């Protein structure tokens, strides 16, 4: 999960995972340079305009045989964490950032890698995506937008550059985030975050 305060400070990662030990998940290699992103200012947490914040309802990734429901999520008021949907079969779109109609910024979708109770999550194989693989977001009206993967990166959760990935500025792109790296049986968490960047397909 993601603490809102640490999102802005950039001192913690997104813990979209549950507690199932697994192999070292999500290779740390970068498949292609990520889009250049200018330095961003801290946002005030208000929701963007209705047009920019139109939320997707479905994510499909053919390379993963993934067809997942997307829920609009924000921040858990009790914990301050990114409120990823509890079901591992669903993924969450960060509603405080750009939406399906965005012309700038990072459209963020996060999901669980796995669960002790439910098994593999929607993003279990996210770290296997390669440059050129496609991901499509679809809205409630059936309108869709397709993106092509340009980068696959892995960070320690304390080192992920959250302001880069949650930016409302710069070229529009899709950012997919889950847990990865070694699993710590003591804390029942993965050490890292796996981040996929995808640009609009032209």
Features:
single chain; mainly beta; Sortase, Chain: A; 8-stranded mixed barrel; 2 helices; 10 strands; disordered N terminus; Class F sortase; Sortase; Sortase_dom-sf; hydrolase; Sortase_F
Describe the structure.
The chain has 202 residues and is mainly β. It has one domain (4-29, 55-200): Beta Barrel (Sortase, Chain: A). Helix content is 5%, strand content 34%. The protein contains two helices and ten strands; from the N terminus they run αββββββββαββ. The chain has helices spanning 4-9, 162-165, and strands at 58-61, 66-73, 91-94, 106-111, 114-115, 119-120, 134-138, 144-156, 173-184, 189-200. An eight-stranded mixed β-barrel has the order 1-2-3-4-9-10-8-7. A two-stranded antiparallel ribbon has the order 5-6. A hairpin with a 4-residue loop joins strand 9 (173-184) and strand 10 (189-200). The longest helix is centred in the first third of the chain and has 6 residues, at 4-9. It is globular and about 45 Å long.
Q: What do we call the CATH topology?
A: Sortase, Chain: A
Structural class: mainly beta
* Major β-sheet annotation: 8 strands, mixed, barrel
User: Strands across the major sheet, in which order?
Assistant: 1-2-3-4-9-10-8-7
Which of globular, elongated, flat, extended, rod-shaped describes the shape?
globular
SSE arrangement, N to C:
HEEEEEEEEHEE
Average pLDDT, rounded to a whole number, is 80
